[in-house]
Write a structure and sequence with these properties.
The structure holds two protein chains of two kinds.
Chain A: H1 5-14, E1 24-28, E2 31-35, H2 36-48, E3 60-63, H3 73-88, E4 93-94, H4 103-109, E5 118-121, E6 135-138, H5 141-150, E7 152-156, E8 160-166, H6 175-186, E9 195-199, H7 202-205, H8 208-216, E10 225-228, H9 232-239, H10 242-247, E11 264-269, E12 276-278, E13 286-288, E14 299-302, H11 304-307, H12 310-320, E15 330-333, H13 338-346, H14 349-356, E16 359-360, E17 381-384, E18 400-403, H15 406-415
Parallel strand pairs in A: 2-3, 2-5, 3-4, 5-6, 8-9, 8-11, 9-10, 14-15, 14-17, 15-16, 17-18
Antiparallel strand pairs in A: 1-7, 12-13
Helix pairs in contact in A: 2-3, 2-5, 6-8, 12-14, 12-15
Chain B: E1 2-9, H1 16-19, H2 30-34, H3 45-48, E2 54-57, H4 69-76, E3 81-84, H5 89-98, E4 102-104, H6 106-111, E5 117-121, E6 126-129, E7 134-137, H7 143-150, H8 154-163
Parallel strand pairs in B: 1-2, 2-3, 3-4
Antiparallel strand pairs in B: 1-5, 5-6, 6-7
Classes of the chains: A alpha/beta, B alpha/beta.
Iron/sulfur cluster (SF4) binds next to helix 11 of chain A.
Chain lengths: ~425, ~160
């Protein structure tokens, strides 16, 4: 019997010939990452265990991103704890505000994580990095503290789901629409504990950004990780990162066997998929955008670890070019990382956003978690490119969030109501 | 290990955003976290529960964000255990790691109402609903996880690895 990508990476790290779903393995961790929120708790735990050293400072990554640039005194307090910890223990991969961005964009784009590696992160969307053919999964702060102390983590080998996407894409349909469509099909618990393996010829038509978007939302189906095959596009991205260029590290890549066993198998004909939207209050409450009529909106957010990639900003800018944000709408654009922001500046994108009447923010999680930079007030309605629309996620308990791709979000900002670029 | 308490009944897909809202995520102290436990799910939660009570929930309890402060707030609020039809995986993992006992038993969830008294035999794999005089079984944890639970969380595991 053959093996899936997740099984192969876990077996490789456990130094076993093969592993089977359900088996518990203790494996070395290549990178244990935390943001300021999860790190604060990990640091507190580590010290409370009487441990004052870390196992390997070059395998730890710390990225303050949720409430940064510090939104208030509390945020400043925990960011300081993390900064001091990073200094004290010589943490190799500490990214300071101004050189950082959202953790899940920073990790693969700066070359912190490589194909074939195991990444654990104190954040549920750690699975995003699976787009570059690594095993990346979200854990809690105690797991992170344990990995910092021992260099290891215990993992249950997940079952895998094989999701295939083939056919010709319709206009304005991107990775976000494919994963929303998949969530409607699988539901928010349909792939609990599984590794979602994404395959299909559609990924030849789409850039890496869309793979990140889809790996990112594996957790929204309950998944443990989302993984893509390694190909020429992956190679180009990985080998162009500063981390890779500086150190030229070697890395392994993994592909599933033809006779690998899957708990779920799905084939999606993408030519039948039009732009999708997730209605409040669940990411699986999905329908085509065209079915939504006359819903006025107060705000649009384009960004987050889901859709703050360069291609996303380009797609949004294409819509905003020569148009204005509707008078009743606030539009907030947030690049995924400073590296993405720099490229956006080179392309003149911020000018387009500002000319259209948008806010162009520095990189942060901000409104995605109801932190700052666009918290929603009572009964406000928002179209957002983020990944979760639970009650109160982006602010007031009565506010409503619709999840969509950047082109749909931008078009909605211009129209003042939910709509698709074709309605412009 | 036997746990006993009254039932607090919750629904399905109770996500970590409503268990411990983002606005409190900067907290790390158990007692402070406890004050906001389940705040956006049921504003009266803390008034309704007593130390040792058991949350009984439908499918996918703890889905969403990986914030460990969610199970920590539940444990710190004095909840003795959570029984659900199923758990989201990071919540499951976090609970084991911090020593919050959790169990999957759809039968028990279907048969239990708010206020029912439950008795859980943690390693024996049995839950009794004393009020309704019914007994249910659940699959006991694999030995690896039992060790972590017996040691009160992941700390014991770490200490052992560091000794080697
Ligand atoms: S952008 Fe949103 S989903 Fe992504 S890491 Fe930040 S808070 Fe989490």
């Amino acid at each position: 019997m053959g093996n899936t990508i997740a099984e192969k990476i876990l077996a490789d790290h456990a130094m076993l010939d093969s592993v089977i779903p359900g088996q518990i393995v203790t494996v070395p961790v290549d990178i244990a990452m935390a943001n300021e929120l999860s790190a604060a708790l990990s640091i507190k735990e580590l010290y409370s265990w009487g441990i004052n050293t870390v196992y390997a400072p070059d395998k730890i990554c710390l990225i303050p991103d949720h409430f940064t640039p510090n939104k208030d005194l509390n945020a400043a307090g925990i960011s300081k704890i993390v900064r001091e910890f990073a200094k004290k223990h010589n943490i190799k991969w500490y990214f300071e505000v101004g050189r950082a961005g959202i953790e899940h964009a920073v990790l693969p784009l700066e070359g912190v994580i490589l194909p074939g590696q195991i990444l654990i992160g104190g954040d549920s969307h750690t699975c995003t990095a699976g787009a570059i053919n690594c095993f990346a999964t979200g854990v809690g702060s105690t797991d992170i503290a344990a990995a910092w102390a021992t260099g290891e983590v215990w993992l249950k080998v997940p079952h895998s789901a094989r999701l295939s996407y083939n056919g010709k894409l319709n206009p304005h349909v991107y990775g976000k629409d494919l994963i929303l469509h998949t969530l409607k099909d699988l539901t928010t618990s349909g792939a609990t504990y599984m590794s979602l393996e994404y395959h299909g010829d559609v990924f030849d038509q789409l850039p890496m950004s869309d793979r990140f978007t889809m790996a990112n939302m594996a957790i929204e189906a309950g998944g443990k990780t989302g993984i893509f095959d390694f190909d020429q596009k992956t190679k180009e991205l990985v080998e162009s990162t500063p981390g890779f260029k500086n150190e030229k590290p070697s890395y392994k890549t993994f592909a599933a066997d033809d006779d690998a066993e899957y708990a779920i198998v799905r084939e999606y004909d993408v030519s039948k998929i039009e732009p999708q939207i997730a209605k409040p209050f669940s990411p699986d409450n999905v329908c085509p955008v065209s079915e939504i009529k006359n819903i006025k909106i107060d705000q649009v957010v384009i960004g987050a670890c889901t859709n703050g990639w360069l291609d996303d900003l380009v797609r949004a800018a294409d819509i905003f070019k020569g148009r204005k944000v509707h008078p009743d709408v606030k539009a907030v654009i947030i690049p995924g990382s400073q590296t993405i922001a720099r490229k956006a500046f080179d392309m003149g994108l911020p000018q387009v956003f500002v000319d259209a009447g948008c806010v162009f923010s520095t990189s942060t999680c901000g409104p995605c978690i109801g932190g700052h930079m666009g918290v929603l007030g009572e009964s406000e309605v928002c179209v957002s490119t983020t990944n979760r629309n639970f009650k109160g996620r982006m602010g007031h308990l009565t506010s409503e969030v619709y999840l969509a791709n950047p082109a749909v979000a931008a078009a909605s900002a211009v129209m003042g109501r939910i709509g698709s670029p074709v309605d412009l | 290990m036997i746990l006993k308490g009254k039932t607090y009944r919750a629904g399905e897909n109770v996500n970590t955003d409503v268990i411990l809202p983002g606005r409190w995520c900067h907290l790390t102290d158990g007692a402070e976290l406890a004050r906001h436990c389940m705040e956006d799910y049921d504003a009266d939660f803390l008034k309704k529960i007593k130390r040792g009570d058991i949350i009984v929930a439908d499918d996918n309890f703890g889905c969403g964000s990986s914030r460990e402060v969610a199970p920590l707030s539940i444990k710190s609020a004095g909840i003795g255990a959570v029984v659900a039809k199923s758990f989201a995986r990071i919540f499951f993992r976090n609970s084991i790691n911090i020593g919050l006992p959790i169990f999957e038993s759809p039968e028990c969830v279907n048969a239990s109402k708010a206020g029912d008294e439950l008795e859980i035999d943690v390693f024996g794999g049995k839950i009794k609903n004393i009020t309704r005089k019914k007994e249910f079984s659940f699959v006991p944890f694999p030995p690896f996880m039992q060790t972590i639970i017996e040691k009160g969380g992941l700390k014991g595991w770490v200490m052992e690895r560091l000794k080697d």
